């Protein structure tokens, strides 16, 4: 009878499994799609980090170019002031030159009149006339000396005039040369200013392109995250439906088995009452003893054991290493304890043995040893390179904790806790990224191809999807 019930139950369960096979197949497909979407999301966030770093580099270059442009503009303003001062000096020099030219013309006219007067009074015979008109030799010498002084004074005035004209001309030439040099420098600086402005405009255009790419990548990341959420919701719904279907099938199987067992028991009882009745020599019915019934019942199970008094020993309570004293208490290596205390201790030991060998702090200490090592997409090596989920998987593998490969799968591992209750060693899960919490708001993670494995001071730098406790 028991075999019939078991067979019936298995048949009903197989029927239920066939009924949910389509749902399970769809669930497997969704999980594969989830893994692909998670990888795409990880790649998108990695690309966003690379674009952000390139944009930051461009902004640094733009800042430097802006600084150079400011210096050039200041130099241009200084040159403009110097050129204005030179123009004032040139105007002043021209005025001095005009004054010197007037003095020259005046001196020239005065000298011409004196020379004319001398020749009119005697021409080539002026000296002879001077001698004849002199009253004596002393008067002659006086006249000759006066004439010589006049000539010498005219010569000095002429030399002074020529020197003045030369100085003014030289100064004018120097000022004009200085002005030309300043004008050339001004032109050069203006050309540098134009070149710098062009470079700044180009860098700003490139920065705008990066900004657009980052915005597009962010849009893609949002779409991937939404798709992951939809896939998760559908998987959860399929799981709930599958579990409900299995539970319903199991319930129906149990009810059917119970019904069949009841029917067979009733039929057996009816058959026994009609066929197995024995009579004694006086014609009275003879009933089976309880002792015979018990023996037959116990013989149906090969695993039933009895003590010396004929009582059934409960296998769940028995163990090869457990000994009892005369009062039924468990004897341990130190003393005798009650059976209840022993079972509670055994349950506690079982819970402790399943909690894992590594503490959160030891996980953090181990993970931080690899800070500075490279980020490699799809990698799992803590030394040669790993991505975010590969890093977490390899760190926890050192403590005997087996984790799935992708960040999305890892966010379903362990026990969910709030970020406010996060402890060292917990997983901080983001959309397409995962990190190990260090405590005090810090995380260690395989960030991107630029930074590699690093420590970040702000665990909430992105939206936290889940916090999972593994140890």
Automatic annotation (TrEMBL):
It holds the Pfam family NLPC_P60. Residues 41-68 form a coiled coil. Residues 349-362 have a biased composition (Low complexity). Residues 1-19 form the signal peptide. This is Hydrolase. It comes from Blautia wexlerae. Residues 246-362 are annotated as: Disordered. Residues 357-471 form the NlpC/P60 domain. Residues 246-262 have a biased composition (Basic and acidic residues). SUPFAM superfamilies: Cysteine proteinases (SSF54001). It comes from the Bacteria.
């Amino acid at each position: 009878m028991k075999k019939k019930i078991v067979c019936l139950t298995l048949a009903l369960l197989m029927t239920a499994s066939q009924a949910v096979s389509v749902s399970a197949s769809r669930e497997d497909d969704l999980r594969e799609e989830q893994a692909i979407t998670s990888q795409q999301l990880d790649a998108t966030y990695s690309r966003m980090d690379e674009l952000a770093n390139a944009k930051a580099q461009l902004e640094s270059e733009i800042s430097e170019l802006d600084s150079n442009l400011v210096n050039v503009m200041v130099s241009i303003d200084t040159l403009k002031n110097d050129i204005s001062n030179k123009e004032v000096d040139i105007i002043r020099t021209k005025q001095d030159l005009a004054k010197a030219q007037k003095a020259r013309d005046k001196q020239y006219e005065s000298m011409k009149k004196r020379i004319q007067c001398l020749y009119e009074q005697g021409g080539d015979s002026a000296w002879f006339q001077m001698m004849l008109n002199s009253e004596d030799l002393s008067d002659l010498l006086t006249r000759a000396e006066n004439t010589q002084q006049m000539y010498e004074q005219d010569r000095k005035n002429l030399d002074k005039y020529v020197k003045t004209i030369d100085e003014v001309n030289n100064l004018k030439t120097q000022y004009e040369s200085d002005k030309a040099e300043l004008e050339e420098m001004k032109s050069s600086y203006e050309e540098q200013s134009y070149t710098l402005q062009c470079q700044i405009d180009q860098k700003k255009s490139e920065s705008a392109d990066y900004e657009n790419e980052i915005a597009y990548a962010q849009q893609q990341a949002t779409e991937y995250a939404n798709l992951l959420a939809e896939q998760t919701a559908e998987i959860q719904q399929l799981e709930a439906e599958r579990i409900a279907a299995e539970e319903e099938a199991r319930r129906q199987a149990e009810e059917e088995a119970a019904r069949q067992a009841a029917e067979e028991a009733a039929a057996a009882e009816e058959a026994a009452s009609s066929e197995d009745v024995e009579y004694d020599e006086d014609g009275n019915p003879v009933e089976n003893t309880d002792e015979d019934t018990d023996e037959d019942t116990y013989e149906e199970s090969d695993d039933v054991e009895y003590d010396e008094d004929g009582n059934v020993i409960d296998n769940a309570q028995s163990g090869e290493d457990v000994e009892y004293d005369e009062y039924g208490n468990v004897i341990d290596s130190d003393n005798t304890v009650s059976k209840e205390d022993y079972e509670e201790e055994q349950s506690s030991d079982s819970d402790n043995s399943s909690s894992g060998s590594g503490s959160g702090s030891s996980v953090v200490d181990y993970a931080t040893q690899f800070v500075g090592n490279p980020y490699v997409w799809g990698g799992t090596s803590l030394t040669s390179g790993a991505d975010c989920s590969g890093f977490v998987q390899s760190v926890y593998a050192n403590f005997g904790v087996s984790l799935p490969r992708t960040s999305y799968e890892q966010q379903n591992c362990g026990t969910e806790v709030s970020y406010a209750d996060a402890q060292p060693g917990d997983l901080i899960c983001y959309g397409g990224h995962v990190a190990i919490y260090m405590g005090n708001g810090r995380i260690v993670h395989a960030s991107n191809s630029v930074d590699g494995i690093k420590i970040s001071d702000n665990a909430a730098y992105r939206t936290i999807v889940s916090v999972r406790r593994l140890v």
